[in-house]
Amino acid sequence: MAVKTESKLDARKLRADFPIFEQQIRGKPLAYLDSAVSAHKPRQVLDKLRTFYETEYANVHRGVYTLSEIATAEYEGARDKVARFVNAPAAREVVFTHGATESINLVAYAWGLDNLGPGDVVVVTELEHHSNFVPWQYIAKRTGADFRAIPLDDHGELQLDALDEIAQAGNVKVVANNLVSNALGTINPIEKLAEWAHEQGAIMVVDAAQAAPHHAIDVQELGCDFLAFSSHKMCGPTSVGALWGRAELLEAMSPFNLGGHMIRSVKLEETTWGQIPFKFEAGTQPIAEAVGFGAAVDYLTDIGMGAIEDHERELLVYALGKLDDVPGLVAYGPAPERRAGIVSFNLEGVHPHDVAQILDMEGVAIRAGHHCCQPLMAKLGVAATNRASFYLYTIPEEIDRLAEGLHKAHKLLAA
Amino acid sequence: MSEFDQLYREVILDHYKNPRGHGLIEHADAEAEGQNPLCGDEVSIYVAFGDDGDTIDEVKFSGRGCAISQAATSMLTELVQGRSAEEVATLPREELLDEIGIPLTPVRLKCALLGLSTLKLALHKAKGTPLPEEWAGASSDLELK
Predict the structure, then answer these.
(1) Which of A18, A23, A73, A194 is the Cys-Cys partner for A223 at CB 3.0 to 4.6 Å?
(2) Residue of B nearest to A247 (CA)
(3) What are phi and psi of A230, to 5 degrees?
(4) Which residue(s) pair with A93 in the sheet?
(5) Is B125 at the interface with chain A, CB within 8 A?
(6) Starting at the edge strand that comes first in sequence, how are the strands of the sheet with A241-245 ordered?
(7) Beta bridge partners of A227
(8) What average pLDDT does range A21-49 have in this prediction?
(9) Residue B137 is nearest to which of A265, A270, A275, comparing CB atoms?
(10) A373 labelled catalytic
(11) Is A283 exposed, middle or buried, given 0-12, 13-18 or 19+ CB atoms closer than 10 A?
C-alpha cells in the first residue's frame, strides 16, 4: 500500500460531523465511550443515505431502466470502496452480508459443512467474540470435527506455544481469530497464525469487526483466507457488513443463502449458481445500507486510518493513567502498544451494572457485561467487566468524566 | 440521431430480424450453453472446425433473448469465422462491442456479451483454451453438461 503522510486528526472538529452529540443526555453532554459495540454516524453517511433513497434508489442488478442502473452503480461502487479499504485483490472477492456475524456463519456453513469431518480440528481462541466461536463450535460438532481453543496468558495475549500440542490433535483445517479483541483490545498476531494455519493445510478466518474501524487492514499482508467485518462499527449503517475471501475458495464453495439473484439457471431438475460474489447474495440486499457503508469507508479514509489509530492510542494511554488513580480498579488487557482503544476493568466491590448505571447518571455511556465473550470472562474469573472504548470523535474530557464517575461509584458503593 | 435510433440502429434490427448463423450444427466440434441470470436469456453455441481442426469454419446459435443479445450473437458468428480457436478464446470483447457500435449500460452489456462468453466456454470445453472470468467457479456445472 502507498505510504501516505496523515495529519493528526482533530477530534473536536470531527465531532461536529456527528449530530448525536448535539443533544444532552440527562441534562449533560453525551460522553459516548461505547464505540466498540457500535459507532455513531456522521452527516456524510446520513446525507448519502437520504440522497440515495430520494434520488437514486431502485433494486439492483435487475432492472434495465436508468434508475436501476444508477442504483446498481452506487451499490457496486460501494463494493469497490470496501474492497480497496482492505486491499482486496479484486472487488468480486467482497461479499456484502448483514454483518461480521453473518460473514463468519457463511464461511462456517458453506465451507465448513463441505470440508470438515472426524479427524479434523477447528481452532479458535479463548479471546473470541461469540460470533467467531459459536458458529465454529456448532459446525465442528455437526461434522464430527474436534474443537480447540488457543489459551490466553494473564495479560490477555494468545499463548502461541500451545499450537504444537493442538496440531497433535488431528488435521487442523480452520484457524479462526479476531484481529482485535472486542473485550480487551488485544491486537492479535494474525500473520503468525495465518502462516501456522497454512503450514497445517488449514484456512485462516479473521474476525475484523473490531479492527476494521480503527486500524488499516491489508488482507494480502495479513495472509488470511477470509476476513469479516461490519459497517455499523465503522460509522456506517447497521445490517450490512462484508466478507472478503480468496476468489478460488469462494468459487469452490457451496452457496449459503439460496434464492433469487444467486443463480445462473434454475430448472425443475437442477439449479446452477451464479458468479461470485452474487452466488452469496441471495434476495434483495441491504442496498442503501451498502451504499452508506461505502460513504463511511470514504469518511474514514479521508481522515486516515493511521491518524485514527494514533488518536485512539493517545486516548488509551491517557485513560490508563486516569484510571490508575481510581481506588480498587483492576484493569485487564495487554500493554498499550499491542492494544486498540479499549479499556476493560472492574471496580472491586462494585458490580459492573452498578458502575455503568452511576456513569449513565453522569451522561457517560460505557458497556457493562460479558461482551459476548463468556469463555474469556471465565478465564479472567469474572462474570462481567466494564468496558470503555474510544473512537475518532472521543475527546479527553470524556475520559475525565469517566474517571470522576468511577471515583463517585467507588465512594458510593465500595468505600 | 435520437437515443432510440442509436440503440436500435438499422444494423442491429437487421441482425435481429435476419440472424446470421441461427440454427444447430449436428455433431458440432464444440458446443456450450450460456445463460444471462439477470433476465433468464439462454443461448446455445455450436462450432465446426475446418480440416486443420482449429480454424473456425462455422458458428451457429440457438436460444432466445432480447434484440441486443440476438443481434450481437449474430454479428459474432460472422466476426469469428475463419479465425483460430486460440485467437477467438482471447478475443477482446471490445472488438465485438465496436462491431455492435451502440452505447450500452452495464446491464445491456451482459446481453451483448452473452454469445461471446458462451462461445469462449464452448472453445474451453473442446480445446482447453482459457476460461473467461465470468465462468470462473462454474466448473462443477460444466461437468454436468
Answers:
(1) A194
(2) B137
(3) -120, 145
(4) none
(5) no
(6) A94-97, A241-245, A226-230, A203-207, A171-178, A120-125, A146-150
(7) A206, A244
(8) 96
(9) A275
(10) no
(11) exposed
Task: Say how far apart CA A282 and CA A332 lie, in whole Å.
Answer: 42
Q: Would you say A11 and A392 are in contact if contact means Cβ atoms under 8 Å apart?
A: yes
| ipTM (interface predicted TM) | 0.76
Angstrom distance (rounded) from CA A275 to CA A277 = 6
Please, which residues have CB within 8 angstroms of residue A398's CB and are 6 or more apart in sequence?
Answer: A31, A32, A33, A364
pLDDT tens-digit map of A38-59: 999 999 999 999 999 999 999 9
* Neighbouring C-beta atoms of residue B90, cutoff 10 Å: 11
Per residue in A155-174, is it b (16+ CB within 10 Å) or e — as a string? ebbbeeebbeebbeebbbbb
Q: Which contacts qualify for A256-259: CB closer than 8 Å, 24 or more apart?
A: A256/A105, A256/A106, A256/A109, A256/A110, A256/A280, A256/A282, A257/A282, A257/A283, A258/A282, A259/A283
C-alpha cell at B95: 472488438
pLDDT in tens, A144-179: 999 999 999 988 899 999 999 999 999 999 999 999
Instruction: Tell me if chain A has a CB within 8 Å of the CB of B141.
Output: yes
- With an 8 Å Cβ cutoff, are A275 and B35 in contact? no
The answer to whether the Cβ–Cβ distance between A251 and B38 falls below 8 Å is no
Query: Model pTM?
Result: 0.91
Q: What is the pLDDT of residues A127-145, one digit of tens each?
A: 999 999 999 999 999 999 9
Put simply, the answer to whether B138 touches A64 (Cβ < 8 Å) is no
Distance CA A26, CA A58 (A): 41
HEC per residue, B51-66 = CCCCEEEEEEEEEECC
In whole angstroms, what is the distance from residue A234 CA to residue A339 CA? 18
Q: ω before A135 within 30° of 0 (cis)? A: no
Residue with cell 461490519: A230
